[in-house]
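INSTRUCTION: Work out how this chain folds

Token vocabulary: learned, describes local backbone geometry

RECORD BEGINS BELOW THIS LINE
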Amino acid sequence: MADWIKKALTRRVRNREIPPDPRLVIGVKFAIAMTLCLSALEIAHMAFLGSWNSEIFAAITGLTGTISGILIAQKT
């Protein structure tokens, strides 16, 4: 999993590759893992309680936006 994250965060400037900070890679891994955990929690909430939890969905949306923002900002 680390290879594609590191590759996605690697900058290319004038035919030179600049690797990302290892802390950034770990942070993105953590955010992706938390998004997956929250998605599983939302599925379990819907399966057992039969209702939608907007707070969990807001957390999923926030983490997804954070991951997208990091990937887009790192490339520019």
